[in-house]
Design a protein that fits this description.
Blueprint lengths: L5 E5 L2 E4 L5 E10 L7 E6 L11 H13 L8 E2 L9 E5 L5 H6 L12
Antiparallel strand pairs: 1-3, 2-3, 3-4, 4-6, 5-6
Length: 115
């Protein structure tokens, strides 16, 4: 993880998926790619089961963790199935996630183009 582009939002915690299984999450972070689209990266301690990135209960628990840290927008949504990995879940964030990300160190380069 580099200091310039990876912004850690949360350290380790446990969450429960829709099947009642405990999921050990190592970290939740965003990667500052230099534009306004923000993907949320959830690093797992163990390989994920297929389709875990779509598990609504797990996504809700990750969202609850972020809300406890000050996020107040709409729910997160499953990310593109193509970019999921065994130990990494990628979730999409709504536009309303941007102010929270900026407070955590994300550089909103799109604001430079606002009139």
């Amino acid at each position: 993880m580099t200091q310039d582009t990876d912004i850690q939002l949360s350290g380790p915690f446990k969450a429960v998926d829709g099947g009642g299984r405990t999921v050990d999450i190592k970290s939740v972070r965003i990667f500052d790619e230099g534009y306004g689209v923000i993907d949320l990266y959830v690093d797992l301690a163990a390989p994920a089961t297929d389709g875990l990135h779509k598990d609504q209960k797990l996504i809700a628990e990750i969202g609850a963790r972020l809300r406890a840290m000050g996020y107040s927008g709409p729910d997160l949504t499953p990310g593109d199935p193509v970019i999921q990995e065994k130990r990494l879940i990628v979730l999409d964030t709504p536009d309303e996630f941007l102010p929270f990300a900026v407070r955590k160190g994300f550089k909103d380069l799109t604001s430079e183009f606002d009139e």
